Amino acid sequence: MGENKKIIIFLHKFPYPPRDSTKLRIFECVIKGLKELAELEFLIVTWENPSKEDINYLKQFGKINLFTYPKFKFVLNALRAFFNFRPFQTEMFYFKKIDELFKSLVNSASAVYVHTIRLGKYIENLSEKDKKKVLLDFNDSIAYHYLNFWKYYPLFLRLFLLIEGFKIRDYEKGLASLLYNFSAVSDFDKEFILENCNLQNYVNFYVTGVNFKPINIAKETIIDENIITFMGNLKYYPNYEGINYFLKNIWPEINKAFPDLKFYIIGQGEEKLKNKFKNLKNVIFTGFLENPYEIIQKSLCFISPVRIGAGIQGKVIEAMSLGKLVLGCSDLKNIEGFENYKNVLICESNTKDEWIKLIKWVKENQNEVKEIGERAKKFVNDNFSSEKVRERYKDIFRNLLKNEKNFNS
User: Fold this and answer.
1) Helix (H, G, I), strand (E, B) or coil at 154
2) How far is CA 230 from CA 178, 227, 243, 246, 305, in A?
3) What pLDDT does 2 receive?
4) Across 139-143, 227-231, 314-318, which has the greatest mean pLDDT?
5) Nearest residue to 161 (alpha-carbon basis) of 172, 170, 149, 171
6) Across all residues in the chain, what is the average pLDDT?
7) Is the pLDDT of residue 84 over 90?
8) Residue 122 has what DSSP assignment?
9) Closest Cα to residue 9, out of 23, 21, 173?
């Protein structure tokens, strides 16, 4: 651990327990990695209410400054954007009390990790010396998400999301011209943020990737050709929308073509969809499972009909780490290293006819499917293991800590 060096970790989610892909990356890669380099101190502003046990567990990694507010306060904050034309996202998490503490912590820190532009307002007015200490982790581009997928949201939200998308696009590019160090989970997100960006400074923009939780499972599993699987939190709107569209428009025709095929949908928040599609045949909502991997492992393939988003889906990476063929929508091709019929299978048009055609191909080409799964497993192990992603964050902060003496320049 670096002598007398301290890294501030500024978050809008409590990172433990790491039950989603973002928290998994923050906890396993950022926190565990940076703890090896310096003392850590956390600043967290959130509407989550972590348990005392979870807070005490995180304390072993560093001092915690936790600010938990009711959701209505975040909503009231967001309303400021109606008057100042800033993104709602950045206004939502801004509290003056926290701003004062943040500036004090940064001033005495060696380096700073800030998670997403939702906390961007806190870093806008830092001194140049302190700005050079900061890594802003975009995670992925919120602007790309809104500008390209607003039409998939409920009608009453579409105009709002489109306008917010334009504001966030400008804000993302503004931060990129204001600061010095950034990261994102994919090359695609990095390129979108930097496109036509008027950079005022020399910037370091790193691509970290996402990580997956290592899974121990029996090496030899008998494949059931009449099962396909999906796993994801159905309270998360992109997951909900993708499954809703698939069950409404695609599954009935698949069910006709393959009457023995069963679709297992694994994940919490299933009640609404389960009630909506209770008359569909061969659709099984399992809810949350402590060990979902055995059923995924024995399934014909893992499918991802999620249409919203361009970043790397954590559950896709998890399925690939099992050596499972993933059949997903066209945005998989935006991820560097993902190649159709090499390590994934991509449903370009997302139509019922193409889904049927691809499922038929999977059923009839099990040797090729196994080879794709083996290449998928190697690809994600080589690029997205926790160890690999953790080392990327450590390398970033080694550079920041090494350049600490130049922060006054």
Assistant:
1) coil
2) 41, 10, 9, 11, 9
3) 47
4) 227-231
5) 149
6) 92
7) no
8) G
9) 23
Q: pLDDT tens digits for 351-392?
A: 999 999 999 999 999 999 999 999 999 999 999 999 999 999
| Residue 287, strand partner residues | 266
The answer on pLDDT for 201 being more than 90 is no
Long-range CB pairs of 199-204, under 8 A, 24+ apart, other chains included:
201/177, 203/176, 203/179, 204/180, 204/396, 204/399
Once rounded to an integer, what is the mean pLDDT over residues 328-349? 85
- The answer to whether the CB of 186 falls within 8 A of the CB of 361 is no
Tally the residues of the chain.
Answer: 409
Close Cβ partners of 206 (under 8 Å, ≥ 6 residues apart): 181, 182, 183, 184, 392, 396
Residue 209 CB partners (closer than 8 Å, separation 6+): 185, 186, 312, 383, 384, 388, 389, 392
Q: Cα separation of 208 and 24, whole Å?
A: 13
Token duo for residue 151: 């039409």
Q: Mean pLDDT throughout 166-195?
A: 93
Name the residue with tokens 């449903």: 347
112-121, 185-194, 256-265: least confident range: 185-194
Q: How far is CA 111 from the centre of its chain?
A: 23
Q: In what side-by-side order are the strands of the sheet with 345-347?
A: 283-287, 262-266, 224-231, 299-304, 326-329, 345-347
| End-to-end CA, the chain | 26
Whether this model's pTM surpasses 0.85: yes
**How is residue 142 written in tokens?**
């919120």
* Longest pairwise C-alpha distance within the chain: 69
What one-letter code names the amino acid at 334? N
Q: What are phi and psi of 359, to 5 degrees?
A: -65, -40
Count of beta carbons in the 10 Å neighbourhood of residue 100: 10
Q: What DSSP state is assigned to residue 405?
A: G
Strand partners, 301: 228
